[in-house]
Specification:
By secondary structure, the chain is an alpha/beta fold. The chain is 37% helix and 22% strand. The chain has a 7-stranded mixed sheet, with helices on both faces.
Length: 265
């Protein structure tokens, strides 16, 4: 499956959202905290940690505290996000990086942590290969990403409004699992869970996605402004999903904890 991700658009979108991101990234922070809680209790060697797709740097002090080290590097595709992280968490190192072509040495890190980042890559297999290369023997990867089914309510509502792609595509969880199984990693944990966040209005839901830079950034998106009539159709269709809790936005979250063998055959 080719996702046709436009990475320059990804970087720009998230860079533009940096100042507001942490205020609106409630699901992202919830998953990040859960991911840190299942991270290994200890790591080996120099305690060199990479947060891949660090965004605003939210997880850097949490990782530093857990492992009692400041040897933490934040890497991101977006210079805007890195600038924000550097200004708020100046104790750590930062590198611009594409997860499919990492600018790091072989065997450099003892832990690579990545929360809600690699879904903006075209090939998960290439991401894992690069992470494997950069991990030291015995090093571990703790990762969450989004799978197909994410924002399904918006996707279905837009499908009733026009023929453009308004919601990003994500790989099926089964495909992600197959990629992990085909990799050289040892698997400690691998699962998928649906997380749902509720909003009071359509505007609150769509504005929240815009404020975190997660609006549609694939090649099939509409280039012109959406007409009022289309927005009305979309709003009506999305309202059909309303529950007592509000308008749902579902996230299909794929999580894995993997390790690079200590002895490489």
């Amino acid at each position: 499956m080719s996702l046709n991700i436009e990475k320059q658009a990804v970087a720009q979108s998230f860079g533009d959202a940096a100042n507001d991101y942490d205020e609106y990234a409630l699901i992202q922070h919830k998953i990040a905290q859960g991911l840190i809680s299942i991270s290994p209790k200890t790591i080996n060697h120099s305690k060199a940690i990479l947060d891949l797709g660090c965004g605003t740097g939210y997880c850097l002090p949490l990782l530093s505290e857990k492992y009692q080290t400041q040897n933490v590097t934040g890497a991101d595709l977006s210079q805007g996000m890195l600038d924000y992280a550097q200004s708020h968490y100046p104790l750590f190192k930062y590198e611009m990086a594409d997860a499919e072509n990492l600018p790091f040495k072989d065997n450099q890190y003892d832990l690579i942590f990545s929360n809600f980042a690699v879904q903006w890559c075209d090939r998960f297999s290439q991401v894992l290969a690069e992470i494997y290369r950069c991990l030291a023997p015995g090093g571990q990867l703790v990762l969450s990403t989004l799978a197909d089914g994410t924002l399904q309510e918006l996707k279905q509502a837009w499908a009733q409004a026009d023929d453009y792609q308004h919601v990003n595509d994500f790989e099926p969880a089964s495909a992600l699992m197959n990629v992990v199984d085909a990799s050289e990693f040892d698997v400690a944990l691998m699962n998928t869970k649906t997380e749902v966040h509720y909003y009071s209005t359509v505007r609150a839901l769509t504005d929240s996605l815009k404020r975190i830079g997660a609006h549609n950034i694939t090649s099939g998106r509409a280039k012109a402004l959406t007409s009022p009539g289309t927005i009305k159709k979309f709003t009506k269709a999305l309202e059909s999903f309303r529950t007592e809790q509000g308008l749902p936005a579902s996230y299909e979250v794929f999580t894995c904890v993997l390790s690079k063998p200590k002895i490489i055959s």
